[in-house]
Amino acid sequence: MLADARLVAGKDLRIEWRSRVGIGQMVPFAVLVLVLFAFALDPDRGILTRATAGLYWVATLFAGLLAVQRAFALEAAPGVREAMRLSGLDPAAWFLGKAAAIAVQLLLLEAVLGVGVVVLYSADLQGPLLLLATCLAATVGIAAAGTLYGVLAAGLAVRDTLVPLLLLPVLAPVLLGATRASESALGNGVGDGWSWCGLLAVFAVLYTMLGMTFFGTLLEET
Amino acid sequence: MRDAVVLLDRFPALAGVDLDVARGEIVLLRGPNGAGKTTLLRTCAGLARVVQGTVEVLGEDLVATPRSVRRRVGMLSHQDGLYADLTVEDNVRFWARAAGADLDDARSALARCDLDGRLATVPAARLSAGQKRRTALAALLARRPELWLLDEPHAGLDRAGRDLVDRLVRDAAAAGATVLFASHELDRAEGLATRAVTIAGGQIRDDSATPAGPIGAERAG
């Protein structure tokens, strides 16, 4: 199954590398969000510093929606969805492959945004290991939930507007957990960042399991 | 298939179809638009839900083991199923590997469909309709399916492309694969098929040998 997942992820990343549609929209959009917040909150640098983690994850989450929509726009080409069903690949492998491709793109985006918050918001990283673990767990969670809801909406004409409506409430715990854990990593938080990171890991595992279980049914039924 | 009923929007697209096809047969499905030809092909591929009756494909129960059956089946439909941003070669390689075939199968399929030159490096988005059709055909060929399901396989192809389809179908049947195809180009199709099944209103109206050969004696299902 992992070899099949690698095949699917490789295909999605190859398409992205060739077209640069997703990254070409996702990165500028997320950076723009950071810049706009920097302009808006500049008069009071204290607020900007305290809000750095939240703004970072809001930008990531919105850009993640673009990544999810792009991932399923690829499969919306005429006959591709049917070819997916006919391929004989394990649906769990389709799920893992597509989620992995989204996760890779998100991690690249997070690295760029990380530089952005250091430059624009003067962020001071005090817990690099915690931040790394938070990014990994949150990214897997966003990618897994995004892939699951992405396939649910993929067969519908209203998928472009439906994905954010479905996904944003589901990802609220990720936004909360990632923000709190990142605040700790940046030295702005109260409480233990690792416990929030643990919540993110649970979310990621839960949605990975749900996706592996139900992706095939959703692919067939929607 | 026995007494197979398939509904489309609550109306029976197949209304109690009985059909046995032997390995190596080339079966033409003919009939007017909306007769149920495409639904029959999709049913054999496990893409349509059978609400009554039984369907056994390549010796396997389609309802019980749909994924196993699908891996052994190749379908060419009206829609080509190609990724626009991938090249011809990448598309064929991906679908071949997804079906468990290796890269040699993909290379061979590209060569047999005359897609191994400069065209192999062209993204699918830039292909003409006929070139897309050839690419879809190569992707099907690379899967080495035991059952070929072709919906209007000659549509959109030039004469060389149509001859290519005929050649591939005959070679596949000679190698033991079974071919079911739907077509409105009856002159060419009846010359290719060994058997012709007429469908109308979701039911089989006629089942007869064609000039290309007799109805297979061995019924493998």
Features:
heterodimer, A: 222 residues, mainly alpha, 10 helices, 84% helix, B: 221 residues, alpha/beta, Rossmann fold, 2 domains, 6-stranded mixed beta sheet, 3-stranded antiparallel beta sheet, 7 helices, 11 strands, 33% helix, disordered C terminus
CATH class of the largest domain in chain B: Alpha Beta
Major sheet size, sense and barrel closure of chain B: 6 strands, mixed
Q: Which pair has the most extensive contact?
A: A-B, 21 and 30 residues
CATH topology of the largest domain in chain B: Rossmann fold
Indicate the structural class of chain B.
alpha/beta
Shape of chain A: globular
Question: How many β-strands of chain B, per DSSP?
Answer: 11
Estimated helix fraction of chain B: 25-40%
The number of helical elements of chain A comes to: 10
Can you identify the CATH superfamily of the largest domain in chain B?
A: P-loop containing nucleotide triphosphate hydrolases
Report the order of strands and helices of chain B.
Answer: EEEHEEEHEHHHEHEHEE
SS field, number of helical segments of chain B: 7
Distance between the termini of chain B: 7 Å
- In order across it, which strands form the biggest sheet of chain B? 7-8-9-3-10-11
**Secondary-structure arrangement, i.e. CATH architecture of the largest domain in chain B:** 3-Layer(aba) Sandwich
Give the C-alpha Rg of chain A.
Answer: 18 Å
